[in-house]
Amino acid sequence: xxxxxxxxxxxxxxxxxxxxxxxxxxxxxxxxxxxxxxxxxxxxxxxxxxxxxxxxxxxxxxxxxxxxxxxxxxxxxxxxxxxxxxxxxxxxxxxxxxxxxxxxxxxxxxxxxxxxxxxxxxxxxxxxxxxxxxxxxxxxxxxxxxxx
Length: 148
Known about the structure:
alpha/beta; 16% strand
């Protein structure tokens, strides 16, 4: 049996559905988790959210050994956290950086990701539904690796 896919969500994503719904939509984090669990299927899923940077780094370290793939929405840490980036540089499996909004259509502060250069795939702008697409892609990438 393969290791589960880890989905890690950064700061303020616990407020989905309430926080700037014109940007992030009405979907709550609990609904995002349901979308992810359905998309992960038999692969299994570890789903987490934190507002604490040190906690995110600890979870990335854990995922290095305990997951087959990683989907991360680092939120604000995308744009300034070298510590999150450095932790992700150690991640040896397929890694998707995901953003609910299209960060490239927003203010320029959101245009430079520290995470993108270390991610396998970068996805943005698909709303909450995009998590499911990202997870299906990760399942395919894991299967491709296993077949190689």
